[in-house]
Amino acid sequence: MIDIDKNLFTQVLEQLPVGTLIIDAGVADWPVVHVNAIVGQLLGLDAVSLLGVPWARLLSDPEELSPQRERLLANPSLAVRHLRQRWQSRSGEPVDMTLQVSPLFVRPGQPAYWLLSVDADPRSTEFAGEDTLRLALHDAQQQLRQVDRNDGVTGLFNRQGFLEVLRRDGALAGREQRRVGIIVFEVDALDRYRDLYGRHAADSCLRKVAHAISGALRRGGDLAARISDSRFAALVGSAEDAHVRQFAERIALRVRELAIHHPRSPAGRYVTVSIGICSEVPPADAADLLDKAEAELMQPQSLGGQLLGAG
């Protein structure tokens, strides 16, 4: 079985038509380690704010989880359907939830994680408030369909999709005091290239650059995105500053070695990228890391992958 790239895994969870959470069963209080946006919509909360929250604290009455926890641990290899809970919402009104809880294993034995999905089976009507839940779930799905997280040219995440992953991963890294690296790549003089060769050629160029960047990301936690017309970003987890810089320079060299002719580039004969980086433990809003990397990119510098400033 092939390893699933984190970018793809994240997209799968976000595209699921139900609210989905992943609970870390290896930690005593069973904290949330992943949650998709539908759950946030159902509760009126930012999904990122739920990361690290113990499962019991999601409930209006945390003690409600205790007997259910015993039930799950009694048969840890079996999925449990129609687990009924009452969760807290932002408004203070409880939200009746019907969950399917499935064990996820890293190795045989006890589950490493629990996969929670909101069970909105229309055939199940005996639970009070389920019709309201299905309507709320439908509304959340409709709202999320209006939000496109992918770039239509390259197939990578767009800026919004990248920021969602950055905030989610950054919140966990911040609690664990782990560094996160952000690299921003600006395709030099893309407008001149487009003026010379046309939109289709420029789109082809962007796809090649996107492939060069994403193809260099080897770790499961790494992620690439196209965050504006001529700009890409890469998220590199648990990275020291020197390693991020070396990695960025290698990717810049890969782009140059594509040998995409650009006679109007001030940086040379071929398409090149300029770089900005930031590498640090994420602050409260991890999106600030992207702002810092973009600010470094805007500093006066030579074009073509030259790197200045400290992350």
Notes on the structure:
The structure is a single chain. The chain is of the alpha+beta class and 311 residues long. It folds into 2 domains: 140 residues, Beta-Lactamase (2-Layer Sandwich), CATH 3.30.450; 139 residues, Alpha-Beta Plaits, CATH 3.30.70.270. Helix content is 36%, strand content 20%. A 5-stranded antiparallel beta sheet has the order 2-1-5-4-3, with helices on one face. Strands 7-8-6-9 form a 4-stranded antiparallel beta sheet, sandwiched between helices. Helix 2 packs across helix 4 and helix 6 crosses helix 7.
Brief description of this entry?
The chain has 311 residues and is of the alpha+beta class.
Question: Would you report the number of β strands?
Answer: 9
CATH topology of the largest domain: Beta-Lactamase
| Major sheet | 5 strands, antiparallel
Q: How many structural domains in the coordinates?
A: 2
- Please report the first level of CATH classification, the CATH class of the largest domain: Alpha Beta
The overall pLDDT, averaged over residues, is 83
- Which regions contain 5 or more consecutive residues with pLDDT less than 50? 120-129, 300-311
End-to-end Cα distance? 38 Å
Question: Order of helices and strands, N to C?
Answer: HEEHHEEEHHEHHEEHEH
Secondary structure category: alpha+beta
Order of strands across the main sheet:
2-1-5-4-3
Residues in β-strands, percent: 15-25%
Percent helix: 25-40%
CATH architecture verdict of the largest domain:
2-Layer Sandwich
The radius of gyration computed from the alpha-carbon positions, rounded to a whole number of angstroms, is 22 Å
Output the CATH homologous superfamily of the largest domain: PAS domain
Please state the overall shape, judged from the principal axes of the Cα atoms: elongated
Q: Helical element count?
A: 9
